[in-house]
Amino acid sequence: MNPPPHNPYEPGNPWDPNNPGNNNPGQNQNWQQNPWQQNPYQQPNYQQPNYQQNWQQNPYQQSPYNPFIPGGQLDLPNASTVLVLGILSILAAFCYGIPGIIMGIIAASLSGTPKSLYENNPGGYTASSYNNLKAGRVCGIIGLSLGGLFLLIILIAALADM
Amino acid sequence: MEQHQFSCPSKSLLGMECPGCGMQRSFILLMRGEFADSLLMYPGLIPTFVLLIFLVLHLIFRFEKGAKILQWLYISTVVIVLAKFIVRQVFLFQHS
């Protein structure tokens, strides 16, 4: 059985020497075809960034691309904030423990979204920002529990005095 | 600076020392250069300074193990402060 004859009008891969396809974009048979697909200068694996965002979509879900870091990874949002809040919570826990509790709660709740973001896409975010997030979360929770402890002790002392 | 110190409300209202007691006096002693006295008055002050300085350095320079070191520094500071607080309360309780 002979193979079917080569159809010169069928669009092919410009890199394939046997089937280069129609290199002349002016001779497009199908006017509804996407003209960008016939561009011979286009690299085969080029991923265009997603400019047409659906505005109802979560803006954090666009594919992260950072041109300044070799892996193209972004920092997790709010990771430094969580770290700073978690470490400052011990200083704030000295004054009756109430600011420490507040900072601990904020640190723990702020770290929820970036954590789930990282778990969905581990390769897209820098590891150092994830470590910052983890450390800040742990410190915040410790500060929260310490603040609560101090508050409890002071309340018990106040009640015992009365 | 010695004349404008914050007053801890728990000491004036309840007569009980809060875990941050002595931090300001310890800081003044540190400014005067008496490290041993400062450490005796409030041992948690120098670990706190180390923690804060390391936090700023880590945010600027992004050390590799920086987050883990920060975490352990924090835990050690907390342990020192708590230990001092508990020891002092027990000490006072025994004497009165």
Give a structural overview.
The complex is a heterodimer of chains A (162) and B (96). Chain A is mainly α and 162 residues long. Chain A contains 4 helices and no strands. Chain A has helices at 79-92, 98-110, 112-120, 127-161. In chain A, helix 2 (98-110) runs antiparallel to helix 4 (127-161). The N and C termini of chain A lie far apart (105 Å). By secondary structure, chain B is mostly helical. Helix content of chain B is 73%, strand content 0%. In chain B, helix 2 runs antiparallel to helix 3 (35-41) and helix 4 runs antiparallel to helix 5. Chain B is globular. The termini of chain B are far apart. At the A-B interface, helix 1 and helix 4 of A face helix 1, helix 4 and helix 5 of B.
Structure keywords:
heterodimer, A: mainly alpha, about 0% strand, B: about 100 residues, mainly alpha, 5 helices
The average pLDDT score of chain A comes to 73
Helical amount of chain A: 40-55%
Quaternary state of this entry equals heterodimer
What structural class should be given to the helix and strand makeup of chain A?
mainly alpha
Beta-strand content of chain A: under 5%
Enumerate the spans of chain A where pLDDT stays under 50 for 5 or more consecutive residues. 24-31, 53-57
- Please count the beta strands of chain A (DSSP E, at least 2 residues each): 0
Envelope shape of chain B: globular
Categorize the overall geometry of chain A.
Answer: rod-shaped
Structural class of the secondary structure composition of chain B? mainly alpha
Indicate the proportion of strand residues of chain B.
under 5%
* Unreliable stretches covering 5 or more consecutive residues of chain B: none
Helical element count of chain A? 4
Rg value of chain B: 16 Å
- The counted number of beta strands of chain B is 0
Helical amount of chain B: over 70%
Which pair of protein chains has the largest interface, and what are the residue counts?
A: A-B, 26 and 28 residues
Order of helix and strand elements from N to C terminus of chain B: HHHHH
Distance between the termini of chain A: 105 Å
How many strands, which pairing sense, and closed or not: the largest β-sheet of chain B? none
Mean pLDDT of chain B: 82
